[in-house]
Amino acid sequence: MNTEFSGKSLSQKLGLKEGLDISVVNAPNRFFDYLSDFPEPLSPDARLEKLNDMIIYFTENKKSLKQTFPGLKDSIKRDGMIWVAWQKKAAEIKSDVDENVIRDTGIDNKMVDIKVISIDEQWSGLKFVIPKNLR
User: How many angstroms separate the Cα of 129 from the Cα of each of 23, 35, 82, 106?
Assistant: First the structure.
């Protein structure tokens, strides 16, 4: 369980709640190990054919992020959220994605970022929602 910095579990930082429709896309296997305190098992299978309360998307490059984000937005409920996770600069795998690229992608898709978290030593996450005036 990752409680780095805040003392909260990853489930708490992400805002996971029982009963939410949650899809996880491209997550590394160890991500699910961090969620052991969450009572409902999350599947690595993306269920983007229905509307979700939350999507957690792991991106490794800018091209994939830009291509995928509009579809993620179309797959959440109006009051839903998207978490976009990216490799930290100190991570073993180098990427052309950083917090600014992700934020700009969200803004380009008429979403706003409202929270940033550390998922683990390798990944950070940025939470997006649809602005209230567009819901």
Answer: 15, 22, 7, 9
